[in-house]
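Chain A, query sequence.
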Amino acid sequence: MREKLRPLIRGGRLTHDNFSTNAKSIVRGDTVTSFKDRVRDGDVTIGTFLNLGSPLVAEVCALSGFDWLLVDLEHGAGGEEALVGQLLAGATHDVPMLVRVESAERIRVGHALDLGAAGVMFPRLDTSEEVATAVSHMWYPPRGDRGVATYNRARRFGGDTRSVSDVNDELLSVVQIETSMALSNVTDVAATSGVDVLFVGPSDLSTALGCPGQLEAEVYLDALDRVVAAARGARIAAGILVGDADTVEAHLHRGFSFVAVASDSALLRRAAAAATRRKR
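Chain A, predicted structure.
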């Protein structure tokens, strides 16, 4: 018997159209595997952070072959007012768009989702209790406490006929591991219902471990192994931010599968520096 095909979030827009492999989904037998399922299953996906707040830069990145893009509202230059344009840029090219919210407040999470984000990254959560509360903001009642509004971009301005449970099931939840306390609680955090990815913030985590920026330090590498082990134990994905593409393979071998390569600003600066190197 064929498994029922589920609606898919494509690049920050919701669709019930015919599926195809170039829409960031994979056809496996008679079943279409959604972006969220690919991530949870440990398929390798490569993305980058969008820090510049520019829809045009977001579109350049969407055209560059990334599997997903993440709009950074915590450290990026653009705020929520610049979010829609970037989500639209990703949607144009069927690239799933995630958002790192400034904080785990319900209103911040709900607003990003109402605008059409395919998932949310949560920074600075230390305990499973904090994570459970934050993740609950992604879901409509009775599972969570997301405000029920249907006349928005995420719900096709009233034209989305999916059930609330289907909407809940399609959203990707990424929880960052950035502090010593989060690391000590990593097994419980990974086991928290609704968490899809544990994501290491290298700068913050290495600083918290007393070796800021020393990404070859034994204590830091041991921490990476703990995150990967916790993710595997909970059957979710382990993710990390890396500085450049040359280090991706080493992290894949370590057990990470959800990998962000730098950011739009870092990639642009590096390319610009390379272009002017001869002049120096």
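The longest helix spans residues 218-234. The chain has one domain: 9-275.
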